[in-house]
Amino acid sequence: MEPQRSPLLEVRGNIELKKPLIKAPSRLPLPGTRFKRGPDQMEDALEPEKKRTRGLDTVTKIATSQSRAPAITARTQTQNQITAPKVPKKTGPRCSTAIAMVLKNQKSGPAVPAQKPGAAPPMVGGRKPTKRPAWDLKGQLCDLNAELKCCRERTQTLAQENQQLQDQLREAQQQAKARGAECRTLEGELARVQAQAEQGQQELGSLRARVLELEEQQCTQEGLLRELQKEQLGLQEERRGLAARLEEQERRLQASEAALSGSQAEVASLRQEATGQAALLVEQGERLHGLEMERRRLHNQLQELKGNIRVFCRVRPVLPGEPTPPPSFLLFPSGPGGPADPPTRLSVSRCDERRGTLSGAPAPATRHDFSFDRVFPPGSRQDEVFEEIAMLVQSALDGYPVCIFAYGQTGSGKTFTMEGGPGRDPQVEGLIPRALRHLFSVAQELGGQGWTYSFVASYVEIYNETVRDLLATGPRKGQGGECEIRRAGPGSEELTVTNARYVPVSCEKEVEALLHLAHQNRAVARTSQNERSSRSHSVFQLQISGEHTGRGLQCGASLNLVDLAGSERLDPSLALGPGERDRLRETQAINSSLSTLGLVIMALSNKESHIPYRNSKLTYLLQNSLGGSAKMLMFVNISPLEENVSESLNSLRFASKVNQCVIGTAQANRK
Ligand code: ADP
Ligand code: MG
């Protein structure tokens, strides 16, 4: 395919391809033709002129040979005519002028010196001139006429040629004009094309910029493409992995489905089995409940056989710094089963200086033997002691009121037994925290059989026949705001302490916090009234409510853990000062309440119609937990010191009296 040419080139080509406008070759050069030719062509164009001139020259030479001066002149003018092509347009007229001059010179022949007669006549028409003698004027005239005729012919020819040339010139001028117009058109076109080219250049520049931009974009896209390809590879890899996993999962699913159908059959048979098991479970539950009720009944019976009032004696160890008593002072004889049997007897020997012999020798020591349900010699651990009362405490969950007292002189170990030793050593934890932990644990077990238990704790002290809340907080803390014992409601047997806090508890930590608070309240009170804690009764009460919603059963009882006031008596021989009068009143109040407790127990034992509960705040508060189906346990705490023997004997005697009491339906098993 031929490449497209720009319009400019096309125009040029047209110009180059245009044929010379000279229609026919002429013997004379055409100025228009010369104008169109290049410098090299000029010579060629000039050539015919020269030839023509030469031709003239030849003519002139003929004339010269006739020694005519005008011929020489004519030759000079012809030479001038040769240089004329430098101004081509003027060549035409000049040429005609030269011809005219030749003719003129030829006409002015007579002015030229006459040729001698006999001189060779001038050559005319190429014929060899014949020499005419000078005298042959006629001949000469004839020659001249011939020559003139020839010249006239020639002039005519030249005029015709001139006419032709002028025609050609006009034609050439018209053509030049047309060319000029065409040239202007082409120039306009060229300008337009140049403008277009310029615009094209601009467009090209912007296109180049665009190309660069696109190349950049392409680079980015290529980078992106490479990344995407890489990612695609990764994804393909991942897809392959996933496909493999899927295959694996499908395999597993199939296996699982197979297993599932097997399992479903198994489940169906298991369901059937479960239905049977449920029926069995209901049956077992019924049986268990029956067994539980039987256990409670037997447990109660066992407790009653052990005695609804039991007395344990506990002798505290000798404390560092205290005098060691003689080895025979306190003895713990073994029971009928030998040393393997837990001790139940205690023997105290007392030397009475007042009962001296007449000879002055000291009277022999008197032995006092006591027998209790259990005797704990010094060194008995807290857990050992609790083990003995755990079953009794559990009775409270079965709905039997339980009362545990700690009786004894100040410093004999009552508080240690009930609350525990100093510090947070779990080894020395007392009965209260241990009993509660045990109750919470058993209640949880019974929860499995459908029982739900709730516990509410209160802690009060009775000092000088006034009741004070040991769990008081805020402004009442340590102040011992007055509390009263009242019936919970009209016609209700239940008693409550007004202004005292009743705190629901469900875990050991809560009980710990309450004991800590009670301890703090006692410490505050101790600053105002010396040793008040040992001069008051502390009563920790836990009200237990149990419910078996499935069977519509309910049970309720209270567990009372009482740290009694010191049982020591005032020495009547001591003189009574103003301070001691208060102390006497205080002691009398304590003794009165302790003896009321004894009297109540006696009255219960003797099944008297009137039980003097109201004679003291302590018995009044505890009246629902004393007697009837209630279970009572008294710890008689004894000091191991010989110097406390008198108070120890008093305590032991009081405890023995209590121990002889029988309350309830069953007979206590006493040895
Ligand atoms: P009470 O309450 O009867 O006045 P405490 O319980 O305060 O007597 O005991 C008096 C002191 O004897 C306390 O320091 C106590 O730690 C200590 N004590 C009492 N019983 C024991 C025991 N079984 N083992 C170790 N120390 C005891
Ligand atoms: Mg105490």
Automatic annotation (TrEMBL):
Residues 61-83 have a biased composition (Polar residues). Residues 25-93, 107-132 are annotated as: Disordered. Residues 148-308 form a coiled coil. It is found in: Cytoplasm, Cytoskeleton. Residues 308-661 form the Kinesin motor domain. It comes from Vulpes vulpes. This is Kinesin-like protein. Keywords: ATP-binding, Coiled coil, Cytoplasm, Cytoskeleton, Microtubule, Motor protein, Nucleotide-binding. InterPro entries: Kinesin-like_fam, Kinesin_motor_CS, Kinesin_motor_dom, Kinesin_motor_dom_sf, P-loop_NTPase. Belongs to the TRAFAC class myosin-kinesin ATPase superfamily. Kinesin family. KIN-14 subfamily.
